Amino acid sequence: MGFLNLSKKGIAIALSAQIVLATQAVTMAQAEMLGTDAAISKYTALANRNALMDEIQRDEIRAEIEALGVDPAEAEARLAALSDAEIATMLTQMENDSAGADIVGTIFTIFVILLVTDLLCFTRFFNFTRCVR
Amino acid sequence: MKRFACLLALCWLAACAPPFDPDERLSFDAPTRAQIEGVPLIQQADFFCGPTSIAMVMQWAGAEITQEEVAALAFSPGAGGTYLADMIGSSRRLGQLAVEIDNFDQLLTEVTAGHPVIVFQNLGFSVVPVWHYGVVTGYDFARDEVYLNSGQQDQMVMPFAVFERTWRRGDYWGLVVLPPDQLPASAGEAEVLSAAAALERVAQYEAAETLYETGAANWPDNWLWQFGLGNARYAQGDLRGARQALRRARSIDPTIPEVRANLAFVESEIGG
Lengths: 133, 272
Fold this sequence. Notes:
The structure holds two protein chains of two kinds.
Chain A: H1 3-25, H2 36-56, H3 59-67, H4 72-80, H5 84-97, H6 106-119
Chain B: H1 22-25, E1 33-35, H2 49-60, H3 67-74, E2 75-76, E3 81-82, H4 84-93, E4 97-101, H5 104-112, E5 117-122, E6 131-140, E7 145-149, E8 156-158, H6 160-168, E9 174-178, H7 189-201, H8 205-218, H9 223-235, H10 239-252, H11 257-271
Antiparallel strand pairs in B: 1-6, 2-3, 4-9, 5-6, 5-9, 6-7, 7-8
C-alpha cells in the first residue's frame, strides 16, 4: 500500500520543478543544518502535486475531461488551487478506496477524473470538495 | 480530547450483532487466522491500560520496560487516563517507530505480518463511555474470535462483531509500535518518514538513524532517507557519517538545495 508508489512517478517529475527551486534557494546562507521535517513536508507535497498534475495532462485523461465538456486548462487551474493538505487527504482517500491495488494505473486514472468532476461539481467523490448547488 | 478510565467491562454486547464478514469488510484476502507469539500478558495497574499496552508491545520486541516507566511519559493523572497523542509521543520518546492506523485492512495486515497492534476501544456505550487500550495479538475468522492482551492476566477473546463495535466507538484508532529496525506492513513511505523525523524531534537520534537506514534500504530511490540519516548522524556528532549520508543523498538527486546546503555545512565543519 505504498503511499509513494504513486509518488515515485511524481518524484521523477518533481526533479524538474526542483531545479527551479534550486536556483532560488541555493544561495541560502546557513547558520545551522536544515531540518528533516521541513524537507519531508515540502518535497512530499511537491511530489504529490506533480504526480497529479502530470496525470491530468496525459492525453487519455484530457480526452475524458474534454468529453465531459470541460476545458482542460480550467481543470488544471482548479487542481492547482488545492492546498497541500487537501491533496494529501485526497491521496490518502484514493489509497484507502483503491483496495490495496497499485494505484498507479487504471484506478488512478479513474480517481483523477473523479477529482476533476468533483472540482467542477459533477460528482462528489472526495470528502473535501465542497460543492454548493 | 478523549479520556479513559481503563475500567474493565464485560462484553455483554454480543447478543444481536451481525457476524463479521471478512469478504465484505476487508479489501484484501486475509489469512483465515493469525496469532502472534510472545506478547506478554501484563496485569495493568489502575488506569494504566495505555502504558501497559505500550509496555507489552515493547517487551514483545525485546525491550526491558515496565508500565510504570511508560506511564511516567504518557499518563495524565488529572484525566485518569492516557491521551492518544501521549500514546504516540511516549512511544517515540522511548525510541520506537510509532504509526497510527484507522481501519480493519491495516489492522489485519499488521497482525498477519506478525506485528501486535494497540487499539483504542470503548467498552461501554457512546453515552457512558468506558475507554480502553488493548493489544490485538491474533484473530480467527472460522471461530469468529479476536484475541487481545487487554491488561489482565488472561487473554481476552472477543467475537469479531463485538470487537468491531468497541473499536468503531474508538474511531478505529490503532497504533503500531515497532523497534526502528522494522517497518510497519500497512503504512506508506510518507508516514514512516514522518515517524522518523518525529524521532529526531524528540532527540532520539540513534533510533532515528536506525529508522532512516531501514527506510533507505527499503526505498533506495528517495533521497529524503539519506538526508534524514545525515541530519540524525550530525546531531550525534558523527560528522563523517553525516557527510557520507548526505553525499549519498546528493548522488540520488543532485538538484536538492537542502541536501547541498547541509552537505556544505558539514564539510565546512570537518574542514574548519
